[in-house]
What we know:
Elements: E1 23-26, E2 30-33, E3 37-38, H1 54-67, E4 71-73, H2 82-91, E5 99-104, E6 106-108, E7 116-118, H3 122-136, E8 141-146, H4 156-169, E9 172-178, H5 182-189, E10 196-200, H6 209-218, E11 221-225, H7 236-250, H8 254-265, H9 278-286, H10 294-301
Parallel strand pairs: 3-4, 4-5, 5-8, 8-9, 9-10, 10-11
Antiparallel strand pairs: 1-2, 6-7
Helix pairs in contact: 1-2, 1-9, 3-4, 7-8
Amino acid sequence: xxxxxxxxxxxxxxxxxxxxxxxxxxxxxxxxxxxxxxxxxxxxxxxxxxxxxxxxxxxxxxxxxxxxxxxxxxxxxxxxxxxxxxxxxxxxxxxxxxxxxxxxxxxxxxxxxxxxxxxxxxxxxxxxxxxxxxxxxxxxxxxxxxxxxxxxxxxxxxxxxxxxxxxxxxxxxxxxxxxxxxxxxxxxxxxxxxxxxxxxxxxxxxxxxxxxxxxxxxxxxxxxxxxxxxxxxxxxxxxxxxxxxxxxxxxxxxxxxxxxxxxxxxxxxxxxxxxxxxxxxxxxxxxxxxxxxxxxxxxxxxxxxxxxxxxx
Length: 312
């Protein structure tokens, strides 16, 4: 039943406010605002351990929801686990219409990033999904991503099939993919409906451009990594030369223009900018109201190459 996906028969919480930027439907039935919130920064340094300002993190999550955020992105490896538990502490019982997306498939053995690895064992993935649901306090995960396509301990298709079984069993409502290739996305589509993708895509770096085009073809929601980053490409000065005058005309920041461009670039984009600052959160949401001209969109799009997508 639409709107009940967090409650599993429990009494519904108050209805979420609508956002001014329009909406996008994940999997055809989870309708959320066009700008979400990526919660990964609400962890310790290097995404390890508890967020040091726990009360501040709780307050920020609550302010995000009060401001109209209807989509929050997390993962079991953020902390690990502490990000999911912080979200539950801040927001449970969840307002009707709030979608919390989480992910499984990565493991982390310590503070150093070198301890990060991918696991595709079917029983591990099943355990991960069940434990994420338990930490978040939900009977069904609205959107659950396979966090990596790089695990080598089980075939990729078997990993996707495991999530497909969890979807059939009712633990997962919709399936997403992160850190995958275009070929893996298409292989997964042959197994089960894929409702969402995440990939690296912003004004300066477009490695996920092929996945964006494929997402458009299939109506799949696309959450770009680092959506407001301006400095990842080879020529930051060129990027700023184009974006700063546009920002000045609108009386906003270059990062807001970068985010507005994401929304103009494709109808399937669902950016999830992260921040630990309430003012930046409000700025991100305000970017939804910026109307860029076709010329502005074209000028920003021309800043980085995008590969062509071959027909399937």
